[in-house]
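Students often ask what a holo structure prediction actually looks like on paper. The answer is less mysterious than it sounds. You provide the chain, you provide the ligand, and the output is a string of discrete structure tokens encoding the 3D arrangement of the protein together with manganese (II) ion.
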Amino acid sequence: MIISLRETADRLMAANSLILTAHVNPDGDAIGSCLGLKYILETLGKKVQVIIDDDLPKFLSIMPGIDQIQKPEADNYEADYLVILDACLDRVGTLPLKCKAPILNIDHHGTNDNLANYLYLDADSAATAEIIYRLAKAIGVKFDRDSATAVYIGLATDSGYFKYSNTTPQTMRAAAELLETGIKPETISEAIETKDYTVVKGMGTALQTLELFADGKIAGIFLDYELTSTLETTEGFIDLIRVIDGVDVSVVLKVVEPEVCRVSMRSKQTDVSKLALRLGGGGHKRAAGCTIKKPFAEAKQYLIDEIIKSLGV
Ligand code: AMP
Ligand code: MN
Ligand code: MN
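The corresponding structure tokens follow.
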């Protein structure tokens, strides 16, 4: 059931215990939204646990409170709500099987499947963290520096530091107000963007696989299982190729398990969320992803064919 921001705030305020979660392969918005909402709810005196069914990326270790996030190790979790942030049900791993509480979903992906008991969806928000910021306003909680840092990281990482097309005056106003707490944008961006020497060398190796298709409208990096296994992370790799002159759709395909390929897509014109949805994933018009369960070469060809079909749509 679709609910308003006000109803979302009212439901959260009426609850006593909540479990917060977000998508697997968590990013700055997923974790920042969880920690921001945790702060709001704890300020209101609620019992809150953040549980994410995946490893947390090293580049987000600057996020205050990230060490309090747990993995779903128990068989049964009790709460008034299971709050799913920055994703819909199919992308949060095993937790919904272990926690039978009603699901309250807060998201900004237009491709959300609307299967939660309660869904607040705002596809015009640059980040789920932007919704968390508005929730704090609606509830009347002011962020401290640590929670402001978490919410700011969500905003900054999903908007490419306020430069992607999802950045609006509201995004900038939210960020400005968070900066009023005294947090420093350069300290945050430096911590997040700092990479090990081996990661930068890995970018060079990955770039060796760069190919163009469809008269240069598609650019792709394709990492087979062997190459993927040598890389610590592929975070930021897609940003190296989305800047190529004339490229509309850019992709990074990596084999995460034999016959399981994870795909990231970015675009300038084509709506890649529609394409990702067709391939069983989702996302936004300009940034989307999916998983293709085929061997590497087959997945690569299938992906290129599907992108060519949707170019300009
Ligand atoms: P990424 O390329 O992982 O940075 O993801 C780009 C955007 O697409 C983000 O908003 C993700 O949340 C979304 N996304 C990535 N993979 C999937 C998927 N399998 N299903 C739904 N959304 C996805
Ligand atoms: Mn996310
Ligand atoms: Mn997001």
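The pocket of manganese (II) ion (ligand 2) is lined by residues 23, 27, 29-30, 86 (CB under 6 Å).
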